[in-house]
Amino acid sequence: MGKGLGRYLAYRILLLFPLLFGVSVLTFLLVRLGDSSPAVMVAGPTATEAQIRDIEADMGLDRSVPVQYWTWLTDALRGDLGTSWMSNRPVTEELWEKLPITLELIGFGILGAILFGVLVGVASAVRQRGVVDQVLRIITLAGVSIPLFWGALLMITLFFTVLGWAPAPLGRVDRGMAMPPHLTGMLVLDSVLSGYLATAVSALAHLALPVLTITLITGATIAKQARAAMVETLGSPAVRYARACGMSERGVVWLAFRNAVPDLIGYFGITFSLALGGAAITELIFSWGGLGQLGLEAITNADFAVVQGFILVMGVLTALIYLVADLLVAAIDPRVKLQ
Amino acid sequence: MTVPTTPDASAGLPIGGPPAHVDHDQPGAARAAARGFWRFVRSSPAAFTGTTIVLAFVVLAALADVLIATDPLQVFGRDLLVAPNSEHWFGTDGNGMDVFARTVHAIRIDLLISVSAVGLSIVVGVALGLIAGYRGGWFEMILLRVMDVLQAFPALILALAVVAAAQESITAVIAVIAFLDTPVFIRMTRGQVLSLREAMYVEAARSTGNKPWRIMWRHIMPNTLPPLIIQTAVRLAWSVMIVSSLAFVGVGIQVPTPEWGAMIRHGSAYVTSGQWWPSVFPGLALMLLVLGFNLLADAIQDHLDPRKD
Q1: List of residues 6+ apart from B30 with CB closer than 8 A
Q2: Inter-chain CB proximity A144 and B279 less than 8 Å
Q3: In chain B, how many domains are there?
Q4: Is the ipTM of this complex over 0.85?
Q5: Which chain A residue lies closest to B263 (C-alpha atoms)?
Q6: Would residue B1 count as lying in a domain?
Q7: Which of A51, B211, B293, B307 could form a disulfide with B237 if both were Cys (CB 3.0 to 4.6 A apart)?
Q8: Alpha-carbon distance values, B170 to B117, B173, B295 (Å)
């Protein structure tokens, strides 16, 4: 696959540019469609009409939208995404700083959701129509119907307020903990690497609730898909043939599972790109301080430059998720050829 | 012109496949539709539960003013954050408003927005999907490229950015959700049309001189209905979630308007101090309605799928 893989990757990365261009144009237009203006926010409630107009001119918002976009685009191609008016820092710097914080949360969440979802889905499909299946299907259906943000609040109510097991949902680590030196920006990893074990434990405790929320709720969607895929392969001619040849039940389930994996990975891509938005709201609830919280606060405060950069990063993340899913399928399924 | 078309009855039939016999008179068609519906409701526990939940919510929304004496916007001055009791069944929130009255009244706005948004996206999506699938060409190509771009980022975040820019406006929320729902219906209808376009009966209709729009509307469209009905239930569930997610983040609909997401946002401030009722009850209602739509979608799929297990 060596040479073909390189060409395929180059093709997919090239494809990313028109896509991101489209996304950036759309975001730029839609954000400026409304009548909320950052100038009004910067100026404050007592500002006069003239002051607001001055600030608008300062920010370049008085020019026509195509001119504004052209300026933004030429700057962006040089790696400058503008400045946030909320923090007065370059957008690229802020995004770069927050990205690992979010990746840590999403990484654990995705891992948990896949493990939970696949286990439940396969168990359900193997015991199709039995009691276990019925119970698991009801749990799955409830999970699919709960919005992530409400699920997070339920978790906090139960595990923090009532039981007192989890730490307060205020950030990534207990206050006053010694912070490890910045290596990757992922707190658990940095703490372990530099030997700050108490910090690592505290960080893991803070991760538990948001990760559990994502695991259960996103995992429910995966469980539903996994069950459907397994039911399909368990009834396939290949499996019936294996049964007829006298293969053990364990072997049959393994065979059916292996045949279901390519479909499942395809579903993972869709599910996780949809879950990015929900994960951003989860950050907001746990005051996580990552990319999601930054982006959502920028959205509610009309911090246009940050919104633009945030959505661009989300676009890249989504494209990466799809790319990884496609590569995995190609690696596993001999019927699929990269082109 | 007598061409074998799908009987009119099945076009107006909400759920349950074509009727047992072809009724050309209106009362007969209505009876057949009712029979089909009843057959569906009894087909599985999921169908029964889903139908019951959704119907109950619709009835509650319609009769909210009659059934509940308490005004959802009335402030009970000193009774802030009162726990659920016989007077305030779901307690009161941080503004001293009755959580029960607000939770029930919120059905209206959430249903209004999601039903209008999904309705709008069906009209636009099916029309564009029919044309793209039947005609193809440059129109289809541009449409598919645009949808690729739309798929490239999380829908929820796009919706947030747009609705925040438009500020508190129900129209903006409806427009954004419809915009995000439309590609689903375009893709689905187009896929159906592509497979039906070459069908023998469409060929026959074409050879007897039917105009393209008549073939699309009378011959192809009715046969795209079953997947459309399933997808409608799925998208309704999704839309209700998005409406409340937007309000939860603080864009779109705001307190004091009774809306589940906005209520949960407002109530979330009290979760860590132990006052769970202002956020838990609206969330429960939200979950039930989404569950109802999801059950309906699953049940309709099982009911229409001849290979059902």
Answers
A1: none
A2: no
A3: 1
A4: no
A5: A150
A6: no
A7: B293
A8: 11, 5, 27
Is there a domain that residue B95 lies in?
A: yes
Torsion of CA B57, B59, B62, B67, to 10 degrees: -100
Closest by alpha carbon to B105, among B241, B224, B256?
B256
Express each pLDDT in B16-65 by its tens digit.
555 444 545 667 778 888 888 888 888 888 889 999 999 999 998 888 88
The domain containing residue B73 runs over which residues? 38-304
Across the interface, of A169, A274, A302, the residue whose CB is closest to B154 is A274
* Closest by Cα among B230, B178, B204, B199 to B134: B199
Check if the beta carbon of residue B302 is closer than 8 Å to that of residue B44: yes
Long-range contacts of A53-58 (CB under 8 A, 24+ apart): none
Q: Which two tokens stand for residue A45?
A: 């409630």
> Does position B5 have pLDDT exceeding 50, yes or no?
no
Burial of A203 (0-12, 13-18, 19+ CB in 10 A): buried
How far is residue B179 CA from its own chain's centroid?
14
Q: Residue B275: inside a domain, yes or no?
A: yes
- Of the candidates A292, A293, A233, A297, the one whose C-alpha atom is nearest the C-alpha of residue A263 is A233
Closest CB from B160, B264, B280 relative to A296: B160
CATH, residue B54: 1.10.3720.10
Residues A127, A120: Cα–Cα separation, whole Å: 11
pLDDT bin (cut points 50, 70, 90) of residue A48 is confident
The domain segmentation of chain A, as residue ranges, is: 3-77, 96-338
- The separation between CA A222 and the C-alpha centre of its own chain, rounded to angstroms, equals 15
B31 assigned to some structural domain: no
| Fold entry, domain A96-338 | MetI-like fold (1.10.3720)
